[in-house]
Amino acid sequence: MISYFIFFIIFTILCFVIYIGYKALKRGLDAKKIPKKTSNNLKNKKNN
After folding, report:
1. Whole-model pTM above 0.70?
2. Which long-range contacts (CB under 8 A, 24 or more apart) does 38-43 make?
3. What angle do CA 36, 22, 34 make, to 5 degrees?
4. Residue 1 belongs to what H/E stretch?
5. Spatial separation of the C-alpha atoms in residues 24 and 30, rounded to whole Å
6. Could you give the CA distance from residue 24 to residue 4 in angstroms, rounded to a whole number?
7. Mind listing the pLDDT tens digit for each residue in 11-23?
């Protein structure tokens, strides 16, 4: 019975870590897209 409780706690921690990793990956990809848009706009303004 105790082993099931320990497995449940480990599973909960694993799900939490995967969730945090997913959020960080999504945030990083979003941040990577933003500078490309702004740098392209700055390049276009300099050329005009």
Report:
1. no
2. none
3. 10
4. none
5. 10
6. 30
7. 999 999 999 999 9
